[in-house]
Amino acid sequence: MAREILLSARGLVKEFPAKGHKRVHAVSDVDLDIYAGETLALVGESGCGKSTLGRTLIQLIPPTAGTVTFQGHEITGLSARAFAPYRRQMQLIFQDPYASLDPRMTVHDIVAEPLVTYKLCPDKAAVTQRVRELLDAVGIPDEFLYRYPHQFSGGQRQRIGIARAIALQPRLIICDEPVSALDVSVQSQILNLLKDLQERFGLTYLFISHDLSVVRFMADRVAVMFLGRLCEVGDTKTVYERPAHPYTRFLLDAIPMADPRARETEKPLLQGEIPSPIDVPSGCRFRTRCPYATSRCRTEEPELRAVDGRLVACHAAPLDR
Amino acid sequence: MDNDLTLKIEHLSSGFFTERGYVPAVDDVSLSIGKGQVVGIVGESGCGKSMIARSVMGLLKYPGRITGGSIKLAGQELTGMSDGQLQRIRGKDMAMIFQEPMTSLNPVVPIGKQMREALLLHEKMDKISAKAEVLKMLEHVGISEPKKRYGAYPHELSGGLRQRVMIAMAMICKPKLLIADEPTTALDVTIEAQILRLIRSLSRETGMSVLLISHNLGVIAQMCDTVYVMYAGKIVEQADAYTLFDRHAHPYTKGLMDSVIDLKSNPRRLPAIGGVVPNLLHLPAGCAFSPRCPRAMDRCREERPELEELAPGHLCRCFEEGRERL
After folding, report:
1. What value does the mean pLDDT take over residues B8-25?
2. B304 vs B31, B194, B234, B287, CA distance in Å?
3. Percentage of chain B surpassing pLDDT 90?
4. A-chain residue closest to B241, CA distance
5. CATH at A68
6. Does B221 touch chain A (CB under 8 A)?
7. Which residues of chain A neighbour B243 with C-beta distances below 8 Å?
8. Which of A184, A257, A261 sits opposite B259 (nearest CB)?
9. CB-CB: which of B160, B194, B263 is closest to A213?
10. Residue A169 and residue A227: Cα distance in Å, rounded?
11. B44 vs A contacts (CB less than 8 Å)
């Protein structure tokens, strides 16, 4: 079954200038396809470049090198005017529902803003009608239409942010840590809502998260990132059940299980911390923390290759288990 | 028996006196921790778990105040103590670590010097032996090259290292009680695992008692001997960790457990607790959880349930008909 590729990146690089003519290697040589209708999760620890990659994919920040195509059209290097029709197709949901809504605007105006900007409704009454529909879709009651963000809880604010993101009927939504700031009981409500909306409107999600449990529930496929590079990409079930990259395995083993019995089987922990993205290790970027590293890992950078039904960038994969 | 307890909290109430009325953040909470025990409090934001920590440490600021009950640290009553008396105990017999280490580290003093302060103040050590002690402790919490780090400023360290420094600072006077308030919430999962293992091994080695506050049931399960579940300022369930995870009786505990995502299965929807946490200024007349409780009956909306003992050490605040079948 040939699946439609919605967005595709090739050789994507994003570097930022740093002190002393050095460069921060935030995203290095990333090839990634996002299929229409799927949820692709981007996971990794803070500073690994997952948010920068997400923003570079939708041209919120221009890449240093490489190309991105959307429905087959190249969208890198376009003028703002030429890019406008694509912008509509790609929206963003942010982590902090307290910071991402203008405190001086009513909920109505927040959700109406994109509709007005893109002149999608013939008159004001039509705008309000559409805003009501959108708020209904995310579970915000009608009587809250003219309230301000501070009058809502974190979960409700996140719902408002979601209503704003779907207002333009986008194809792709980048969800950047959408539930990290929420309590567990509210987190489940929002994740269920995102799944419902995906089904109802045929949305594609790029789901950026450091929370591997949330990713297990949300994602069809998962891409694991370490220090600006992808180290493993595959079906969520495959990757979680049989991680092939040592880093993926350490990440999964580190999740504290909600079962006191798991204490008795203490798994080996990843030692040390993430190297600086300014002075990245030669060869494989994970080698300084990797117990399986050999001299080859120091000299030769592993490419993503197909191993056991997924892509993995490791000379040693698949590991013996 | 009670003298063996590192911490004994009885009928503690504390809250905030605001313009809109008294906010009962902690309501009649009793909790005890034995020597070398790790005790957890789990609950969502606003349930009062951090207020307990602050009440014990004597860190409540106006308009917050302890309004009743007793807190005993190794038999010594802490409520009613003057600031000066508390200061002699804080940092020496009990210490606290927080979610965000930057808030409790002084940004303009090198970390080694900050740690040395406590030894000079509480242990009356001279500077040279205090420095040696600090270096030993930095190494103990897994900081490589402690001599190099001794003169480092907090901003020069990564989040994981800062958290280790804060733990080292809390441990330096060998306290009887360590209060850890969401100690790993801001950290990545691989660093979180390192820090949790460190706290556990320090407790085992030194017999230090730990009060661990977390919203993460995974962290609670991996760390705690006894667990208290809090909702709207009250303990709603209390049990040893194995009993709580296997045979919880309170519908709120069940709701929390259900919202933990199982890595091995892939359900289409997650069970969620409907509604939101109640406003403490306008608590419902009956059980505080009744508006969100799938099992609530008329009685739950009118009458407040008491904590009842279901089995030795297993307490639950729910009418018998409402409890989960054990």
Report:
1. 95
2. 20, 42, 11, 5
3. 71
4. A260
5. 3.40.50.300
6. yes
7. none
8. A184
9. B263
10. 33
11. 183-185
A189 and A256 belong to one structural domain? yes
Q: Sorting pLDDT into bands at 50, 70 and 90, what band is B326? A: low
* Over residues B18-46, mean pLDDT: 94
Q: What pLDDT score was predicted for residue B3? A: 60
Closest chain B residue to A216 measured between Cα atoms?
A: B263
pLDDT value of position B82: 92
- Express each pLDDT in B201-222 by its tens digit: 889 999 999 999 999 999 999 9
Question: Do both A77 and A160 map to the same domain?
Answer: no
ipTM: 0.86
With CB atoms and an 8 Å threshold, state whether B263 touches A260: no
| Residue B13, beta-bridge partner list | B68
Q: Are residues A116 and A265 in the same domain?
A: no
Lowest mean pLDDT among A156-170, A191-205, A280-294, B260-274: B260-274
CATH fold group of domain B2-224: Rossmann fold (3.40.50)
- The first and second tokens of residue B215, run together, are 């919203």
Residue with tokens 């103040």: B121
Q: Which residue of B has its CA nearest to A289?
A: B190
**C-alpha distance from residue A307 to each of A103, A224, A231 (Å):** 49, 15, 12
Query: Which among A189, A214, A270 has CB closest to B272?
Result: A189
Q: Which of A185, A213, A256 sits opposite B272 (nearest CB)?
A: A185
Which tokens go with A86? 């694509």
